[in-house]
């Protein structure tokens, strides 16, 4: 891939310089795209473009900023090229359901994918710039990534660069093109739209994992493995929400969620749960055994949003989407 006659060391040195930024760039691409798989492709594309254009950099400015510029523009071009501008966790304007799900998986929709904690940069050391409005742990939450997917691509990029990474409007205008005033205008519109997703204008503050959260996760896993539906529902807040991509239906409130689970709980002969992490939140991979097959096979990936010792929001990626995510989380196929 290098030019004929170019020393191999140049390539190795380039890879060493850029590799330290891989995880944060991949997370940036994920936030832009809402897709783990697209983020993988785009961060590889970013490094390929950077290698080919390395003579244009020549140490001017920040290598990190230069790589972010390439990655952001690659994401914007990829969004233009695909059929859907954004991925969703919930269809906009769709009210919560109060009956059993009957529509089946909505394969025609593009769903927001979860992000493995193993792929995250160190959230403790990932300090955003002084102008950032969101803490590192807030800006990886599944609900936050879902909310920014509803922004037009340029607004999304501006908000991520300024409010998540802490870039100035001047720096962002240089990257995206246009004037500083246009970036400030885009930010104002993006912040107003994002604020509508949160009653307090911003996502819940995510703290470091604590013993209470660990106990909640353990009780959640035990409820599944013990076939204890009542025990599972008891872990939910009264106003909890439940989403289940790729099904359109979603539910609000412990009573509605209990009623839905009651219609599907007996579909399998048993469950086994494995703890993992997604989007900086507790997560569980559930394997299920059917009534006809004794093998434990991937069934669903559960992302939990805890609050005050209870579950405020539960997102379960069910078949066929859920099992397809196991490999990306390093989970065995059986």
TrEMBL record:
GO MF term set: DNA binding; DNA-directed RNA polymerase activity; sigma factor activity
Keyword Transferase listed: yes
Top-level taxon: Bacteria
GO process terms (BP): DNA-templated transcription initiation
Keywords of this entry: Nucleotidyltransferase, Sigma factor, Transcription, Transcription regulation, Transferase
RNA polymerase sigma-70 region domain residues: 21-83
Xref: CDD domains: NTF2_like, Sigma70_r4
Enzyme category, top tier: transferase
Oligomeric form and interacting partners: Interacts transiently with the RNA polymerase catalytic core formed by RpoA, RpoB, RpoC and RpoZ (2 alpha, 1 beta, 1 beta' and 1 omega subunit) to form the RNA polymerase holoenzyme that can initiate transcription.
Family: Belongs to the sigma-70 factor family. ECF subfamily.
Protein name, entry field: RNA polymerase factor sigma-70
Native source species: Mesorhizobium amorphae CCNWGS0123
